[in-house]
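Quick one: co-fold with zinc ion.
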Amino acid sequence: MLTPRLEDYIQQGKDFQILLSQIQDKTVSQSYLFTGNRGLGKRTFARLAGKALLCTGDGKRPCGTCPSCVMAESRNHPDLIIIEQGKPIAADVKKDRATIPVDDIREMIRLCSVQTTDGNLRIVLIYDADKMTVQAQNCLLKTLEEPPEQTCIILVTEHMEAILSTIISRCRIIRFKPWKEEFILQILAKEGTPAEQAHDIARVCNGSIGKALDLAGNNEYWELRDEVVKAFFRNTKYSEILKYSNQWKDRKGEAEQIFQILEFHVREMLDIRLQGRNDQGIEQFPAHWQRFIREGDIRKMLALLDAIADARKQIKFSTNFQAVAEKLLFLFTGEGNAWL
Ligand SMILES: [Zn+2]
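Sure, here it is.
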């Protein structure tokens, strides 16, 4: 699966620009905290930064071919310590633990006390840092207060609020932002995602590469999406509505996904209309809906969004997804048919 390259992160802004040159010069700080939503490439960046800092090749790092890069890639580099929930480094910690226990941090400290190869830097990556127990965090804090020489510790977390403020204040904070649509499209194109799908994905993934790649590889999602488009936008016959709602009778578990797909389409309508967008986004709708998008009352588009929100509430109290879906189908079909 394709992930960003180290240099791609320059698009994440000034902090990254500085950090990237520090990584090349191996003049990084002793501790960092990488934070931001899921799927923005925090781990990928931490891994690439660690690899680059250990790389012994000449020129741009990581070179990918020196012995150090090869060892780092296979997680066998003696100077690269990776701590992650469920993958303990301490010998007597059970594998499936939901937290990172203090034993892992103690083991990390022990490993850090050993001389590195050739006086290299030592890199410690702590993924899911919020999963550290309070005891583990307190133990780490002591290390951050008196950091071992030549060591760079990188904490990675989506949930900074779960990290002790005393730890946060000792780290340089690097915030990951949503990626631009163009960049997501580039990644998806390299992955071989069809352009039409890629366009939709780029708009629903909120700048998350992780989510974009998940969606691109998720055939069930695309099948469900086709089903929703067919029922809500392509069908013009009231007599067919029961057939569609009947298909979803026992699929309450998929309700939220169906709502999301529907919501995406209505938001697209609004966006095309309000931004005066003239891209391929409108082509996913049949001709009568295209007329609605260009000429329809915007309040009616907002009413469709409200109806989806209502349906979401109803489903919490009712087990009958069929009835909820039917009401929505009647509303959408009626709205679209006015533009036939
Ligand atoms: Zn290398």
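If it helps, Residues 255-275 form the longest helix (21 residues).
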